[in-house]
Amino acid sequence: MIQRILPFVAALPPGRTTLVLAAGMVVACWWPFHAPLNAVSWGKGDRGAVLRSPGVLLSTQPLAILPLQGTDTTIELWLRPEGEKRKDNDRGTILSFYSADGARQLKIDQYHAGMDLRWEDGTDFYAPDAMNRGKYSSITITSDASGTRVYANGKLVRSVSEFHITNKTLSRNVAVGTSAETPNKWIGEIRAFAIYNRVLARPTIWTEQTRPDPDGLQLFYMFEKPAGATIANLASGGDGLRIPERYEIPAKAVLAPLDFRHPYDLVENIVGFVPFGFFLCGFLESRRVRNAILFVAIVSSVFSVTIELVQVGLPTRDSSLTDVLTNFLGGTIGAWLWLRIVGTAKPAGV
């Protein structure tokens, strides 16, 4: 197979092919070049915020969950997850609690049928089989000094003693439907979201008629289509959720730290830069540049860093050191393949 393809590949002008590949990667990495419309609609009877890709709701101000020193808290959600039906990406961030002062972010993610509570530093607590795609689920998360527990439709799914959520943790801004730092979009419908400053004795089973217990209720959103662009906090007069006209990432990360949890994405980024490194090395060899593979490694790194920095301003793209590393590896591998397979036997010329 390689012997059949090799003459065709070797006949391509490496300089022009490199430029075409670079232009294609720019389009692929920067598309769309603007902030798309916010994909939030409403369910039957204007009840339930339906989030597609990309959709987000953002707090109008930091949440105030008092007392701040409190260690007992409950988060309740009534939702219908869908999840992405491609790759292994049946995941997305349902809630992200974040602040502008750089304090670590708490995320509540869907991962396949489970719920993953995750700190920004990677510490997480996974509760499997907490949800079913396409079905409504009542999720209750309680936390106190003894640990954290996740309930699904009134039944305990998992508990862990090492993971804790406090009122101070939650007294931040909140993003619904995406991570606050990266476009880790959640797809589904959310009907209710409540926070208490106490541990509920019994998880709530949500229905159309259900209303939360007022004792200790700090935050309550019932997702019904509002008259304006803000969903009110029914537990108090503040802390509303705004519905942006366009999709936003409120605390975008610049070159986020290395993260190797998603093998498919790692392989995709490496493979995507192999042709670029391959033909760039061919062009340099045709110009008799010394240490062509080193030059390709440097160019791949600089090109990747440029792409990642521009992505900071594009809400549907994320900026990551992981991408820089994998792109560097891909370009270097491509250069090595040129030297190994084609080498200096390639005729000079662009």
For the record, give the distance between the C-alpha atoms at the N and C termini, rounded to a whole number: 25 Å
Assign a percent range to the helix content. Answer: 25-40%
Please tell me the overall pLDDT.
90
Q: Which fold name corresponds to the CATH topology of the largest domain?
A: Jelly Rolls
Strand content: 15-25%
Broad CATH class of the largest domain = Mainly Beta
Number of domains: 2
Number of helices: 6
Biggest pleated-sheet summary: 8 strands, antiparallel
CATH architecture of the largest domain: Sandwich
How many DSSP-defined strands?
16
Show unreliable segments: 345-350
Order of helices and strands: HHEEEEEEEEEEEHEEEEEHHH
Going by helix content, strand content and strand pairing, the class is alpha+beta
Taking Cα atoms only, what radius of gyration do you get, to the nearest Å?
A: 24 Å
Shape: elongated
Assembly type of the shown chains? single chain
Key terms for this structure?
eight-stranded antiparallel beta sheet; Jelly Rolls; alpha+beta; 6 helices; 2 domains; disordered C terminus; 350 residues; elongated
Question: What report would you give on this structure?
Answer:
The protein is α+β, with helices and mostly antiparallel strands and 350 residues long. The chain has 2 domains: 2-33 and 255-345, no CATH class; 40-242, Jelly Rolls. It has helices at residues 2-11, 14-30, 167-170, 263-286, 292-311, 321-342, and strands spanning 40-42, 49-51, 57-59, 73-81, 91-98, 106-111, 114-119, 124-127, 137-144, 147-152, 155-160, 173-176, 188-196, 217-222, 230-231, 241-242. Strands 1, 2, 4, 9, 10, 11, 13 and 14 form an 8-stranded antiparallel beta sheet that branches. An 8-stranded antiparallel beta sheet has the order 8-7-6-5-12-3-16-15, with no helix packed on it. The longest helix has 24 residues, at 263-286.
